[in-house]
Amino acid sequence: EQVLFNGAHNDWVRDTVFSTQSDHLISVSRDRSMKLIEVATQRFVDNITSITPGALKGGIESVDRHPTKDELLCGGADGEPKLYQMIRTKARVIGDDFNLIRAYPAMPGRVNVVAFDKTGERIIAGSSIDGKGEVRIYKTDDAQQLVRVEIPEGGVFAADFSPSGEVAAVGGFDGVVRLLSTKDGTIIKTFSPVEI
After folding, report:
1. Number of C-beta neighbours around residue 157 at 10 A
2. Residues of 63-100 as b/e, b for ≥16 C-beta within 10 angstroms?
3. Which residues are CB-contacts of 96 (< 8 A; sequence separation ≥ 6)?
């Protein structure tokens, strides 16, 4: 049974996540916006990202929510993972990007996936450009880069932390899953999840 419909985006929706209380749905799209929707009323509330033309350099591919706070991590065509607060606390002004908490150092190409670890203290992001990929792990609070791994066999489209946070699983264009140490980026294991 459909319980929510909202047509606020004007291009493909690429990812969604609920707020901590599940009372809001956040969606990101190729239309270069992250939108906030109230679940109970199905009402579009706000653009979380800037609405200024040219402020965002392309579509947004991925979104994840901090495990305990309504802070939203997104990544897309501009190559910069970005952290936003969910609720605007001052009047919108054309030209602002007020909800932006932090932008992380730009990665090569398009950021296809972002995720928090279970503590919210680290983030992982995967990107692709010219048939190659890259994975980076940053500290959430100060954007310090902790790990950087190049994947020359193809773009990265999936990445997440293990529950312990000691391992990251990364997948991409070549169909191989790589398990990486989150301490130093060492590849622990590689495997194909399907028989070819």
Report:
1. 18
2. bbbbeeebbbbbbbbbbbbbbbebebeeeeeeeeeebe
3. 50, 52
Nearest to 152 by CA among 168, 136, 129: 129
Backbone angles phi, psi at 192, to 5 degrees: -100, 125
CB atoms within 10 A of CB 53: 9
Query: 5 with 51: CB under 8 angstroms?
Result: no
The reported pLDDT for the residue numbered 68 is: 97
Residue 132, CB half-sphere, CA atoms under 13 Å: how many?
Answer: 9
- Closest to 105 in 3D by CA, of 69, 81, 133, 71: 81
Find out whether 27 and 62 touch, Cβ atoms under 8 Å.
no
Rounded Cα distance between 119 and 104, Å, is 18
For 154: left if phi > 0, alpha if psi spans -120 to 50, otherwise beta; the answer is left
Q: What is the pLDDT of residues 111-170, one digit of tens each?
A: 999 999 999 999 999 999 999 999 999 999 999 999 999 999 999 999 999 999 999 999
3-state helix, strand, coil in the chain (%, to 5): 0, 50, 50
Place of tokens 């140490």: 181
Report how far residue 148's alpha carbon sits from residue 44's, in angstroms, rounded to the nearest whole number. 37
Largest CA distance in the chain: 55
SS3 184: coil
